[in-house]
Design brief:
The protein is built from eight helices and eight strands. The protein is an alpha/beta fold. The chain has an eight-stranded mixed sheet with strand order 3-2-1-4-5-6-7-8, sandwiched between helices. The radius of gyration is 18 Å and the shape is globular.
Length: 301
């Protein structure tokens, strides 16, 4: 049995999907704003990319904390649970967890062909992180899921909203699997699911955060702990480029990371943000939004 080593004065932070884009900027921002004894775990699926990214952050001007690259495929729930257990055993828990990993989604391929990989990472990964890292989050910690303004409930057809409104995490997972089945059997549009799979995926991410937050709220608020979803706004990345024509108002990843990090690194979280979807420090109401246009309409804008 390994011995428990609690690093009481050092914070442990972990970012998923951190070898490029916003995830890289979040890891680099944490490393610049945390203390020299703190540790930032930069994770991703590909060993070489993770190693290169961790080295780039470690040698970046302004980096203060320690940075370590770790291979982590969030679609593998066993891997996520294993890393959470390891950090609990070695460090007594974790202080900051940012669930940011996504799978590529492009407009040039049919949505059903991309659905499994996308859902496994965006939704399965979110569920795994919430389930595994919630129990090992230390008092005063931060458990953050990067989502989107598309994650408000109003972006779904009213007939689908009860699947996610007030749902438990298990119910969110069941709704996601029902949606996945509908995609593959060709009944998704008939059941009023949006054709652009990013929309129900984001709603499900925020619903999962809300489900976990409902169970933890009282204890977390008493300890200054924050569980929330964040929308970073439009970010100019390789993943977002195929979907938009006008990038005149897009942020760089470093710019987008600032508001997210301000929320995470605040001394005491605003209780109003607990369990909510937050953009630039403001809560986006859960029931806001209108049913989203189809993928074809989206691309014609």
């Amino acid at each position: 049995m390994s011995s428990l080593v609690v690093m009481s004065d050092a914070r442990i932070a972990l970012v998923t999907g951190a070898n490029q884009g916003l995830g890289f900027a979040l890891a680099a921002g944490l490393a610049a704003r945390m203390n020299p004894d703190d540790l930032v775990l930069l994770t991703g699926r590909h060993a070489r990319r993770v190693a290169d990214a961790a080295a780039a952050v470690s040698t970046r001007a302004g980096t203060r904390s320690r940075v370590l690259g770790r291979v982590l495929d969030v679609a593998g729930t066993g891997a996520v649970a294993g890393l959470a257990a390891e950090l609990a055993d070695r460090h007594g828990g974790v202080d900051i967890v940012i669930s940011n990993a996504i799978a590529a989604l492009t407009p040039d391929r049919p949505q059903p062909e991309q659905a499994d990989a996308f859902i496994d990472v965006a939704n399965g990964g979110t569920h795994a992180v919430l389930r595994s890292f919630g129990p090992v989050l230390r008092p005063g910690g931060r458990l953050i899921v990067v989502a989107s303004s598309l994650g408000t409930l109003g972006h779904l057809d009213p007939r689908l909203q009860p699947l996610f409104d007030g749902a438990t995490l298990a119910e969110v997972e069941a709704a996601v699997e029902s949606w996945r089945t509908a995609i593959h059997d060709g009944t998704a549009e008939e059941q009023s699911w949006p054709r652009w799979i990013n929309v129900p995926s984001k709603v499900a991410q925020v619903a999962a955060v809300r489900a976990v937050a409902t169970q933890r709220r009282a204890a977390d608020l008493a300890k200054g702990t924050l569980v929330a979803a964040v929308c970073p706004g439009l970010v100019d990345t390789r993943a977002s480029r195929p979907w938009f024509d006008d990038y005149s108002r897009a942020q760089t990843p470093d710019q987008a990371a600032r508001a997210v990090l301000d929320l995470i690194l605040a001394d005491r979280p605003d209780p109003a943000t607990y369990g909510e979807l937050v953009q630039f420090g403001q809560v986006l109401p859960w029931h806001s939004g209108t049913p989203f246009p189809s993928q074809d309409q989206m691309l014609s804008r």
